[in-house]
Amino acid sequence: MESPQNPDASQHGMVGKIADYIERSRGKPSSAPARDAALMCIFDLLGAAAVGIGDIGPRAIRNVVPAVYGDGSNPVWFTGKGSSLIGAAWANSAAAATLDLDDGNRFARGHPGAAIIPVAFAVAHETGATLEDVITAIVIGYEVGISVGAAKTSYGSSGTWTPYGVVATAAALRGTPRGVIEHALAIAGESAPSQAFASAPIPRIPAPEGSAVKEGIPWSVVTGLTALYLAEAGHTGPRNILESQRHYQFPADQVLGEIPHICATYFKPYACCRHIHAPLIALERLLAEHDIAPGGIDGIDVEIHSAGLRISNRPEPENIVDIQYSIPYCLALVSLYGRESLLPLTADALGRADVLALAGKVTLSLSPVLDAVYPQDILACVTIRVGDQHFSSGPTAPEGEPLMSWDALEVKFKTATRFVATPSRIEEMLGAIRSLRSGDATPLEHVLADLKLD
């Protein structure tokens, strides 16, 4: 492959720095903490994908994949079927992202794993990459995607910045030349899903209806991989895109990979937006500490940062995605049915009269104090009113950050997959992950290609 025209044009820009980081880092072993974090991210992501395989969005994409991207041997996870590289990565990303159980990074304000890990596996299938090369590529993808997402001057849904991570991951495994990487990053950045409706600042009038599009993560996979192919074919992009101070502000002293972003990943104990997790933890603690009966609750007051008020927060959700972005409904659901009602979220959570009644008693308000520390700290305060008694939490943080223990991830995996897999299949998947940790990827490759859950 030859580099596109003027390969030295952006040597000193951020795109050039990112391309240089990818070129320097690929093929090298990751640090022990980054390697372990990547393995954890793979484990967590596969659980999210297994749970999401039957949702309407992933099903629709799998139905479309053969016509758009053709058949192939690249595994479409948990279906026993295959597609082309892009088709498989698209479908697997959709399954992983659909139920909001995938990992995230609060500084980028979104979800890298559901884009990067499916791409790493799909490209590795085509290139025959080693497990260590895959792990390094995932670490690189998280580093690049999160760095760009965190530098955005205004909020953008995950799909607006994950294409950078997709390009980085795929380019690391494909050995793409530095000059081509620069153009691929630029093409991906300029072609990324705009998510103008979902990313709009508050007040969003109307709030977006919950839909399978969500944050555009699966489409960002298609965008990023297509951008790389285009750059390899000679297509060009605006390599000064990240110099736009209107849209990006990178730290002057930023050194990519110095403290790997993947080590700051958060994992979700609930299948809903991360902004809901701190209120949920505060609520659960208050219910337990004060032995509060849900039927006696007269009101739940939530103080939160402005980003928590940006999500739709419908007290009467019309679909599963609406629930994923509703503080009132999620608090009511967990109050009445416990945290397992959100691990995973299922269709029978919709339209429950008792949940709707309690959700109508939840009030949300902005806390200037909590807003001032976001996203350095993501906190919420909850007060439960029972008659003339008020039970209040202090500022409460969500669980699962940074990372979780392997034992906690295994508990999460078993709980989340209990409706989609038999105990023997769950154990088969867990065994494959244990083999992966010891350096043997073969059992996991078999599980992803041959184990059917749909």
TrEMBL record:
Residue ranges occupied by any MmgE/PrpD C-terminal domain in the UniProt entry: 270-424
Domain of life: Bacteria
Pfam families linked to this entry: MmgE_PrpD_C, MmgE_PrpD_N
One MF term in the entry's GO annotations: lyase activity
Domain MmgE/PrpD N-terminal span(s) in chain numbering: 17-246
Similarity field: Belongs to the PrpD family.
Name under which the protein is recorded: 2-methylcitrate dehydratase
Organism of this sequence: Thalassospira marina
